[in-house]
Design a protein that fits this description.
- The chain has helices at about 5-10, 25-35, 175-180, 220-230, 245-260, 275-285, 315-335, 390-395; strands at about 40-45, 60, 70, 75, 90-95, 110-115, 125-130, 135, 140, 150-155, 165, 185-190, 195-200, 205, 215-220, 235-240, 260-265, 285-290, 295, 300-305, 310-315, 345-350, 360-370, 375-380, 395-400, 415-420.
- The protein has about 425 residues and is α/β, with parallel strands linked by helices.
- It has four domains: about 5-40 and about 190-335, MoaB/Mog-like domain (Molybdenum Cofactor Biosythetic Enzyme, Chain A), CATH 3.40.980.10; about 40-65 and about 155-190, Alpha-Beta Complex (Molybdopterin biosynthesis moea protein, domain 2); about 70-155, Molybdopterin biosynthesis moea protein, domain 3 (Molybdopterin biosynthesis moeA protein, domain 3, Beta Complex); about 345-420, MoeA, C-terminal, domain IV (Beta-clip, Beta Barrel), CATH 2.40.340.10.
- A six-stranded mixed sheet has the order 7-4-6-5-9-8, with no helix packed on it.
- The longest helix has 19 residues, at about 315-335.
- It starts with 6 loop residues before the first helix and ends in a 5-residue tail after the last strand.
- It binds adenosine monophosphate and magnesium ion.
- Adenosine monophosphate (AMP) binds near residues 217, 221, 266 and 270.
Length: about 425
């Protein structure tokens, strides 16, 4: 990872920086340079590591599996015994189960009945699956055509002793929990949990339980933000609704910067509201106000107060989710100490047309599915207005119409990012 830069330095690295027409990729590049990963680590019980980045490499203290063992139910044999083009009869001298090995040795002409996971009996090297043999009392007849070493799992083939099983920065998911357990670790070192303060701004916002006056709306951004932060595995600190008032905003920002590694606010960055936000922020730290060449989204503030990063997202509910996913998510993961793990695009055939002009990135809510022939298709869902949160709920993916891309005709390929994993 490169050393973090000040906002001015990061901006200075970009050619053609225009805060009023910033491409998505330019904004992402600035943010990536400015955020500071947390250093501190702690040891936690394995299950508590779920969702958190590893603080160091995890080196395997053992071979997994610890022994060569059978991958199937069948018979362990000595391959050299088998005739190349005729059936071979072998004497069955015992049975081995997973966790109950065959104790003796095997001699030429002998086979051992083995269950999946059983340690390969001494002298045997190949497993013949039970479905292809014929059993005749204490003898088993193996047909020709077996391969040497087949159906045998090798010692250390999953994880080799002394080798890094997992690298620092890997976010622990279900597979990693299983890997850590298979190495016998009851605890693991992860980065300390990132603290993220979030609040909504707006005089029109009411919290749940309050009556709605004329022109009021319930605050929904704190709920979508809570959900997205929770999924990232950070400590989300809910700071409520902050009124459109410079003193209230300054107090909230100071408290948040004191208590958290990152601040995410919504609203108050659009033209007309940005002015007092701008004045308040200028007193606290380094902040830039951007108009991003994207839809939905557009206005956004980004900055740093000490080592605390600040993301001022737009107020519209869909814009909040989109800007969170495409700017804040990766930044918070980086701050949390996670290695970059870009979400993959899925290329799908668009069932409908998208009107789009080059020069901005558009994020459309879509529904991704396989057609009868197994090809991926995507269609737009619902109304795409940035205030219409229902479209997020009805979608299973984001259709990403890239900066330079023009209109899309039915049948054209488009890039999508599935919500699963994204939110
Ligand atoms: P703003 O960016 O503050 O001008 O807000 C843009 C639009 O989003 C306005 O219609 C606001 O009422 C609405 N809005 C802002 N914040 C929220 C919120 N937390 N919950 C619901 N709507 C909001
Ligand atoms: Mg507002």
């Amino acid at each position: 990872m490169n050393a973090p830069q000040t906002l001015a330095e990061a901006i200075g690295c970009l050619s053609g920086y225009d805060p009023d027409a910033l491409a998505v990729e330019q904004a992402r590049a600035i943010i990536e340079r400015v955020v500071v990963p947390v250093e501190a680590a702690e040891r936690v019980a394995v299950r508590a590591a779920l969702g958190r980045p590893l603080a160091g490499d995890v080196v395997s203290p053992i071979d997994v599996p610890a022994n060569d063992n059978s991958a199937m139910d069948g018979y362990a044999v000595r391959f050299a015994d088998l005739a190349a083009d005729a059936p071979t009869a072998l004497a069955v001298v015992g049975t081995a189960f997973a966790g109950r090995p065959f104790e003796g040795n095997t001699a030429p002409g002998q086979a051992v009945r083995v269950m999946t996971g059983a340690v390969m009996p001494a002298g045997t090297d190949t497993v013949v699956v039970q479905e292809v043999v014929t059993r005749d009392g204490e003898r088993v007849v193996v047909p020709p055509g077996q391969r040497c070493g087949q159906h045998r799992r090798l010692r250390g083939e999953d994880l080799g002793r002394g080798r890094p099983a997992l690298l620092a920065g890997k976010r622990v998911g279900p597979a990693e929990l299983g890997l850590l357990a298979s190495l016998g670790f009851a605890e693991v070192a992860v980065r300390r949990r990132l603290r993220v303060a979030f609040f909504s701004t707006g005089d029109e916002l009411r919290s749940l339980g309050e009556p709605l006056g004329p022109g009021d709306v319930y605050d929904r951004n704190r709920y979508t933000l809570f959900g997205m932060l929770q999924r990232l595995g950070v400590d989300a600190i809910d700071m409520g609704v902050v009124r459109d008032d410079p003193d209230a905003l300054e107090r909230a920002m100071r408290t948040a910067a004191h208590n958290a590694d990152a601040i995410v606010s919504s609203g108050g960055v659009s033209v007309g509201e940005a002015d007092f936000t701008r004045q308040v922020m200028a007193r606290l730290g380094d902040i830039a106000f951007w108009t991003i060449a994207m839809r939905p989204g557009r206005p956004m503030a980004f900055g740093r107060i000490g080592n605390t990063s600040y993301f001022g997202l737009p107020g519209n509910p869909v814009a909040v989710m989109v800007t969170f996913q495409f700017f804040v998510r990766d930044a918070l993961l980086r701050q949390a100490g996670a290695a970059p793990a870009p979400l993959p695009f899925v290329r799908a055939r668009s069932l409908g047309a998208f009107r789009k002009r080059p020069g901005r990135t558009e994020y459309q809510r879509g529904w991704l599915e396989c057609d009868a022939g197994g090809a991926m298709t995507v269609r737009s869902v619902g109304s795409q207005g940035s205030g219409i949160l229902r479209s997020m709920s009805e979608a299973n993916c984001m259709v990403v119409l890239h900066h330079a891309q023009g209109s899309v005709e039915p049948g054209d390929p488009v890039d999508c990012i599935a919500f699963d994993g994204l939110v």
